[in-house]
Inverse folding.
């Protein structure tokens, strides 16, 4: 396959020029990619708006995005790791892109068994899965990847995972290209212990599914105990925000359309009331899906939305979460933008539900003062998502033109503990343009609440040292990539936090790994 590439436009350009910079395609007429998609069909399926790895490969092969390429050795001193999840060895930096993580723990043994599902480009699939049987003290990456076979097609990432307490099983999966889940549908695998996996169902047999998310109702008193929900954007149906549900993991409902695509609403994450929590509004099962109107992409303003179901996913209402807000606009990644040098991030965060009908959501946007390029914000509903508070800034550093925060995650539990965490350059004093620039180093920082979000404690640093900015040298992954999101959870008095970490050096280049920390909830 003739792979043509073009130069990306980076932060070195002035902001107005960056915002206006566009890709110059170099397409052959009806060029066929290795994925069976003609380059002329990119706009038909809005492939430039999809965040999955298959879409990225198509964009590379059509010359509309640049693949990774070798980076110069950084020669940075080693830093002590947290707990490395993605511990597969790599022969070179061009085969070591492991990021975009989801984590969930088993309720059968109070969180001793933990599964992390993430993107890991290894051969012809983009799947990596690791497990811990000692509460997160160590992790084992399963080889060969269990989700790389079984559905008859290639794995293209966008990881999801839950533990279903009623069924006593982990359910996890990714997008599958080809095979019995369609040309780009959603496939699952199941496991009783996180180690051994069996091929499961296809929640949706699709042609252009993207950015799926997953949640399970683990409350025994719920009228929908054990029901699982998968939401996604269906780019074969006008990018409609869609959802299916299942009580057994085998048979799934017909898709329910939450937003029909007349305005593109990105699927961010499905969630619901945690186990051990009394239901609000008398509902058997309250389910939420966070979405985002991205304003057409690039540096446009964003709008957060929340969709709610009181009947187990059958019918839905929606509300907006505050006014539109300015986006983080530091690097041009085609439709996507984000912090430099290679982070594509549209501002997505993570919703979670606490006791007494309190719903939480964090997200990222442009800073408000001193040219700060990015801050993390938090909003809260005290009436089960009907009305929302005014956004507050969670990061407590002094606003600075260098000190950006982005890509937050959030978890909540039945006791009213909330843990928000994000990527943080609060210690930067210089700009970040290239991966080896000192101003590109970052930390994983968070804040916690023990009052169900009414107040937050001082900031905590979750990573153990400054993290070097990892490169992205893999030619089969878009160069503008370090994971699109992370999904964190909480269980048994701890928050489970995962992130993209750059502290490992392979052949002199810092690479993308997935790290984990078990963060105690505040007393």
């Amino acid at each position: 396959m003739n792979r043509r590439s073009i130069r990306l436009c980076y932060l070195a350009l002035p902001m107005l020029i960056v915002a206006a910079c566009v890709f110059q395609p170099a397409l052959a007429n009806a060029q066929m990619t290795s994925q069976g998609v003609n380059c002329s069909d990119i706009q038909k399926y809005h492939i430039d708006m999809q965040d999955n790895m298959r879409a990225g490969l198509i964009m590379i092969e059509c010359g509309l995005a640049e693949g990774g390429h070798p980076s110069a050795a950084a020669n940075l001193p080693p830093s002590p790791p947290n707990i490395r999840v993605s511990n597969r060895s790599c022969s070179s930096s061009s085969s070591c892109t492991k990021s975009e993580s989801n984590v969930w723990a088993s309720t059968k043994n109070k969180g001793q068994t933990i599964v992390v599902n993430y993107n890991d480009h290894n051969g012809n699939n983009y799947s990596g899965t690791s497990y811990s049987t000692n509460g997160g003290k160590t992790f084992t990456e399963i080889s060969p990847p269990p989700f790389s076979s079984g559905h008859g097609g290639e794995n293209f990432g966008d990881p999801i995972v839950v533990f279903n307490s009623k069924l006593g099983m982990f359910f996890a999966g990714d997008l599958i290209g080809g095979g019995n889940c369609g040309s780009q549908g959603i496939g699952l695998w199941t496991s009783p212990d996180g180690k051994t996996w069996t091929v499961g169902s296809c929640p949706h047999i699709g042609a252009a599914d993207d950015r799926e998310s997953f949640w399970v109702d683990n409350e025994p008193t719920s009228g929908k105990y054990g029901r699982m929900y998968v939401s996604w954007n269906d780019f074969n149906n006008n990018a409609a925000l869609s959802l299916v549900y299942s009580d057994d993991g085998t048979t799934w409902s017909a898709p329910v359309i939450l937003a029909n695509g007349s305005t593109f609403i990105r699927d961010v994450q499905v969630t619901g009331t945690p186990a051990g929590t009394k239901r609000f509004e008398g509902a058997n099962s309250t389910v939420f899906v966070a979405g985002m109107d991205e304003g057409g992409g690039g540096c446009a303003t964003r709008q957060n939305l929340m969709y709610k179901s009181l009947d187990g996913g059958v019918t839905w209402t929606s509300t907006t979460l505050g006014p539109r807000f300015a986006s983080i606009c530091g690097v041009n990644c085609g439709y996507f933008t984000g912090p430099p040098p290679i982070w594509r991030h549209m501002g997505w965060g993570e919703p979670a539900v606490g006791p007494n009908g309190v719903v939480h959501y964090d997200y990222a946007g442009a800073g408000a003062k001193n040219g700060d390029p990015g801050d993390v914000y938090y909003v809260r509903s005290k009436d089960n998502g009907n009305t929302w508070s005014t956004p507050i800034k969670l990061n407590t550093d002094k606003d600075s033109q260098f000190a950006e925060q982005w890509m937050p995650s959030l978890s909540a539990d039945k006791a009213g503990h909330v843990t928000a965490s994000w990527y943080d350059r609060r210690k930067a004093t210089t700009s970040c343009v290239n991966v080896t620039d000192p101003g590109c180093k970052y930390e994983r920082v968070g804040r916690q609440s023990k009052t169900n979000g009414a107040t937050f404690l001082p900031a905590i640093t979750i990573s153990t040292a400054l993290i070097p900015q990892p490169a992205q040298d893999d030619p089969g992954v878009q160069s503008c990539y370090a994971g699109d999101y992370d999904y964190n959870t909480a269980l048994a008095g701890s928050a489970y936090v995962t992130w993209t970490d750059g502290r490992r050096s392979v052949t002199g280049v810092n690479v993308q790994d997935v790290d984990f920390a078990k963060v105690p909830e505040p007393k």
Q: What stands out?
A: Residues 1-29, 74-81 have pLDDT under 50 and may be disordered. The chain has two helices and 33 strands. The radius of gyration is 21 Å. The chain has one domain: 15-74+92-218+238-255+262-520.
